[in-house]
Amino acid sequence: MCGIIGIVSDKGNIKGRIIEGLKRLEYRGYDSAGVAIKTDSKIFVHKKKGKVYQMEEELKGANFPSRVGIGHTRWATHGEPSDPNSHPHSDCRGEITLAHNGIIENYQELKEELRGKGHRFRSQTDSEVIAHLLEEYTGEGANFLDALKRTVNRLEGSFALVILNSKEDALYFARKDSPLVLGLGEGENFAASDVPAFLPWTNRVIFLENGEMGKLTPSGVEIYKFSGEKIDKPPTTITWSLAQAEKSGYKHFMLKEIHEQAKAIGDTVNPRINRDRNSVVIEELPISPTEINHILIIACGTSYHAGLVGKFYLEEIAGIKTEVDYASEFRYRKPVLPPSTLTIAVSQSGETADTIGALRKARQGSKSLAICNVLGSSITREADATLYTHAGPEISVASTKAFTTQLSLLLLLALYLGRERGIITPEQEADLVSKLLALPSKIEQMLRSQEEKIRQIGIEISSYRNALYLGRHLNYPIALEGALKLKEISYIHAEGYPAGEMKHGPIALIDESLPTVFIATESKVLDKVRSNMEEIKSRRGRIVSLISGKQPAIEELSDGVIRVPQVDEYLYPIINIIPLQLVAYYAADFLGHDVDQPRNLAKSVTVE
Ligand code: AGP
Questions:
Q1: Alpha helix (H) residue ranges in 374-462
Q2: Residue 599's pLDDT band (boundaries 50, 70, 90)?
Q3: CA 195–ligand 1 middle distance (angstroms)
C-alpha cells in the first residue's frame, strides 16, 4: 500500500504541494519517497530511500516553474527499500515517468518481453515495467491515451497510476483494485490514493472505479473505461476534516485496519494461488518440504499467538512436529534443535529485538524462514528466506490485519507442505484453498451484520475491571489474542485460557463481577466448551459467546451473542479474532483512551 499524488495546475508551487500531499499520505507507506516535476520539456526526478521530510530538505533549493508533477511515498512489496527502487519510475529515455500503488502480478513476463525489445531496467520493482510498456506503445506511434489503454489492458494485478510525459502539461491516470480519487479545483486538478492528499485545495472529488483511466489538465477532465469508451462522472463534495480523511473517515487507524482485513487477506493469499488447480505456490523455502522433520516458531506478542495457531495447521495439515516459543525466552535457553529443523520467525515489523535475537540463536542449528509485513526489514535480511504478508502499513499499535494475514500465510504454508509431503491430497488442498479465497467476503458480511451488536458488547465490557477469554484447540490462541487486544488498549485486565483449564484454578475467580468471553464456534470440541459454560453460568458468571450456526443451548447460556458465519474449522481462528478486536476497540474508545497509541506501548519493540 503506497501513497501517490499528481497535480496539474496553473497556480504554481507544484513541488511544494506534492510534498505536502505526500506527508498526508505517509500512513500508506514511508520507506522511501520521490517526486517528478515536468519543467519546460524535461522531467526532473528526485527519489530516495527515507521519509518525505528528508526529501523536502534535499529539495529546498530546487524551485522551477512547472504546471504538472507527481509524487510517491512507498510501502515496498517488490524490491527492497533503496534509491533505485523508489518511485517515480521512468522509461529508457526519461520522457515518461509514473508513480504506482499496487502489485503487478505478471511483471516478470512483461519485463522479459520488453528486455527482448532492448529496454533497459534500472530497478527490481514490478512498477517500472509500466513505464517501458508506455514507451513501447507510444514509440509505435500511438497517442498517449491509446498507449495507456493498451498498457492497462496488458497488466495483471492491482494498480493506481499517475503518469507524466515530457511532451505535454497533462496528468494521466488509471485505476484497478488500488484506490485512486480525482480532485477538481479551479484552474487545477488532482489525482491521489486518498482524499487527504489534496483536501486543503479542493473538496470536490471523483472516486474512480476499477477499469477507469483518463487525462487531467488544469481545466480539463477526461475519463474513459479501459475499453476506450468515454464516460461522465459527476463530482461529489467531501465534508470530512483532514484528520478524519487520513483515516478514510474512520475515527482511529485501528478501526480502519480492522476493516481492511478482508482486503489484506486477499492481497496476501491471491498471489500465492495457482487458480488452475487451486493449489498453493511457495518457492522461497530454504529447505525441501520432505526434508523438514521439526518446526520451531519464534515470535512475540500477537505474532506469538499467530504461531500458536500455526502449530495446529503445521501439525494437523502438514504432519510436522511444531513447537512455538516466546522469542524472549528462547534466546536465553540452551535449545535442542533436531536435525532438519525449520525455524519460522513471525513478525509484523521485522524489527522486534527479541525475535531478531532468537532468530540469530536458532540459525546456529537450523534453516530459517521469516513471515513478515515489512520488505527489507532486519528479520527479512537475517532469515534465509521470507514469506511476506501484504497487509500494508499497520499504523495502530494494536496489531490486527497483520495477525489475520499471518494466520492466512501459515495456513498456506501448511497446505503447501502437507501436499508436498503427501499428508493431504491435492483435492483436500484445493478444497481448503477455495474456502480461504471465499473468506474475505464472509468477513465483510459479518462486519456489516454484527458490528453494532459488537459495539454494544464492547461498551458493556468496558464497565468491568477484569475479563476472561476461553477457547479450545484452534481457538485457544484466539482467546489469548482476544485478551491481549482488550488489555493493551482498554487497560482492563484480561486473561486468555484454554477452556478445559477452568476447573484447574481459574473457576475460583468466577462471580457476577467477571465476564467471560467464550469462543464457541462450531468445532469437534464444542460440547466440551458448552459444559465449561454451564460451570460458569451456575456460578453467576456473565457470558459473551461467539457462535456459528444454530446453537440454541449455547445461546440459552449466554448474556450476549456474536454471530460468526459458518466456515471450515481451520478458518475459524482467522474470522473469530475480528469480533474480539472490535470488542476491545469499542471498549477502549468508550473509555476515551488513545486507541492508536495506548500508554506504555510502542508499535515496534526494538529494545529488549
Ligand atoms: C500486538 O497488538 C502488540 N502490538 C505486540 O504484542 C506485537 O505483536 C509484538 O510486539 C510483536 O511485534 P512484531 O510482530 O512486529 O514482531
A1: 378-382, 401-420, 426-461
A2: confident
A3: 30
